[in-house]
Amino acid sequence: MPERLRPFVVRRSDDEKILGVSEAAARLEVSRTTVYEWARMARLIAWKTTKRGLRIPAGQILGAGRVVPALKDVVDAVGDPELAWTFLTQEWAFEDTVALPLDLLKDGRIDEVLDAAPGFGATFT
Containing domain of residue 43, as a range? Predict the structure, then answer.
């Protein structure tokens, strides 16, 4: 993450589960190589840390081989995986509700989330 954005990142609560590559691979029932590839393609949101390798939020994993849809589009719109995860896990005002964008993606309301994502990312440029 760019240094100028770090002051704006909301620190995660202790109850938010962040996984390493091995645990994510086990939950997804895929190889570690697949996890790295999915992270590289932003099919799976992950970011590098200096001490622990990749950090992968568990909330995006839906089951064996399944992740929340449209994560790559959100990362592309926001511009940074960690910042995209922050957007997805904070309440946001939508036309008919206030909700977590992650929950709306899970419900298939992809267009609404993608319409809001650039506005979140633009606040940090």
Answer: 16-67
User: C-alpha 5: how far from its chain's center?
Assistant: 16
Contact 54, 36 (CB under 8 A): yes
| Domain endpoint, select from 24, 44, 67 | 67
Percent of the chain beyond pLDDT 90? 73
Would you say residue 125 has pLDDT above 70? no
Residue 54 scores a pLDDT above 80: yes
CB 68 within 8 A of CB 102: yes
Q: The tokens 């309301």 sit on which residue?
A: 109
The model's pTM is: 0.83
Indicate whether 38 belongs to any domain: yes
